[in-house]
Amino acid sequence: TILPSILNVFSRSPAVLAQEFARLDQISDGRMVLGLGSSGHLVIEDFFGVPFERPLRRIREYVEIFRMLMAGRRLEYEGELFQLQRGFRLDYPRVRDEVPVWIAAITPRSIRQTGEIADGILPIHWPTRLLPQLREQLEEGASSAGRDASKITIAPFTNVFILDGNADEDERKWMAARAHVHHYVNRMGDFYWQMLTRAGHADEVAASKAAWGERDREASLAALSDEMIAGIQVIGPIEEVRERLAERARLGADVQMLYMPDGDPREVGRVLESLLG
User: CA–CA separation, 129 vs 214, rounded Å?
Assistant: First the structure.
């Protein structure tokens, strides 16, 4: 399976995505997965220059149009955002008529919609202990649409930091883990800090955001406790990391989207072999 991360639904049209993925699926011999998400208003409006409007509806219509084109059907679509009536078809060679669609979702409404329309979900910074709750929310959406939630792949993005007993290096890795969550809490709009607040980290999130508002980065980082970070990221000695990944699998992570460790490529290879061993 090949997933080129998450593509937002504002900077490309659904037809462009269908063109790209028809070709990529042919090259990869039918292994592609389309990852979709809304991103957030800061990136969409201040980088791409597009109004961040009706993201949930936009995702739904992208999925519907993408699937019509990949199936070789005439593009006759009457949506709330897209009205396409010329009957174009995707005149590209295709190795299959359906490419799975996985959606990045962390809010209650977006998770429910993902259960209604998608083949998988890509949660970011979703706490390990709440993976069963994520499956329950997907089941609610799937049930409302007459779908089987057990066929929806849960594929959380997972940061892994392996500690080796070197105090300075281990501290650097803890800081890297904390900084990654901090960035999403304070610099990536509202979705992530609101999700972590709902997840039981209201005090830490509020303290971090208050310090960040005062431009005190050190205090803002320190407000995010080791316990909070360890519940979101996977950090520890190699054996503990293996156990945590296995725990996440038991709790509902069907596919774990591991960020590649940093460092020398040969060392990264050894780390990955150790994790898989």
Answer: 32
List C-alpha distances in Å: 257 to 97, 132, 160.
25, 18, 10
* Domains of the chain as residue ranges with CATH: 7-157 (3.20.20.30), 159-238+262-276 (no CATH)
* Secondary structure of residue 200 in the 3-state scheme: helix
Site of tokens 């997840």:
199
Q: Please write the tens of the pLDDT for every residue from 97-147.
A: 999 999 999 999 999 999 999 999 999 999 999 999 999 999 999 999 999
The tokens for 245 are: 């990944």
Checking DSSP bridges between strand 34-37 and strand 101-103, what pairing results, if any?
Answer: parallel
CA distances from 254 to 104, 146, 228 (A): 15, 22, 23
Query: Which residue is it, tokens 């069963």?
Result: 132
Cα(225)–Cα(36) distance, rounded to whole angstroms? 31
Helix or strand or coil: residue 271? Answer: helix
Name the pTM for this structure.
Answer: 0.93
CA angle in degrees (0–180, nearest 5) for 118-120-126: 120
Say how far apart CA 268 and CA 94 lie, in whole Å.
35
